[in-house]
């Protein structure tokens, strides 16, 4: 329900406005309570000032184990809890192992307390020290190097390189979780956006791009897994076509990311539109490679077809980033 108030002038120069009583009661605001104001464009956000900036959440893990427990810890982390208390009548050895794996897979987490029925995890990072821009930039570097090495691995049938690509996917996932955590924090409180020094709309754009980069990392990992199934070299003409497809796909992603990061709206529009147009050409190139595969053994052709699809999809994700960049560059209503 929307409530309105009239702005009044007191003392001849001070503007004042009353706040709704129901809201004040629900948020423990009374006479003498300090509140904080955060300007954002033509809006002004008000929030009660909190002495304790760290939020704690408790989760009953009695019936959780394995992947389900892993996902639960990750969800609490992304949701923004600084202290996560995991409780049960008796925490099993397997549960403790899973909790340690989850802690190691997330940036900034450390086990603070461990007893028979309780494990407490704490985020040691100061939110003001985090940079969503740096996290997305790092995701870009890792995801694109993974895709490059995945193509090199299939060209050379280098199993060691393929396994290295698979391992690096954990780094991309860790950064994706960080970006998601930061973004959700900006949704909860304007203070988080102020500490980042970025408008919440820009944080949304970065989070959208990070999601596409995470998917590119997944497809590079998929290519690496498929590479491990090959026993004989891939025909040279197919390798050459795949490498050319990768170069074109990479340019789409790079143009999309450059368009997202630039502060020049005209340059952003130029790069983003070029990237979107290139996606259609890449789809045509992918179809031509599929024709080359028709003369191969059906099993090998199927594996290579999946690799072609993954490279093509990576270009599609670059096109999605370009679309986000166009929205970012558009005039703000």
UniProtKB/TrEMBL annotation:
Q: Which UniProt keywords apply?
A: Coiled coil
Coiled-coil regions, chain positions: 268-295
**Domain SpoVT-AbrB per the UniProt entry, residue ranges:** 9-54
Tell me, what is one Gene Ontology molecular-function annotation carried by this entry? DNA binding
The domain of life for this entry's organism is: Archaea
| GO biological process terms held by the UniProt record | intracellular phosphate ion homeostasis; negative regulation of phosphate metabolic process
Q: Does the keyword S-adenosyl-L-methionine apply?
A: no
Q: What is this protein called?
A: Phosphate uptake regulator
Identify the species of origin.
Halogeometricum pallidum JCM 14848
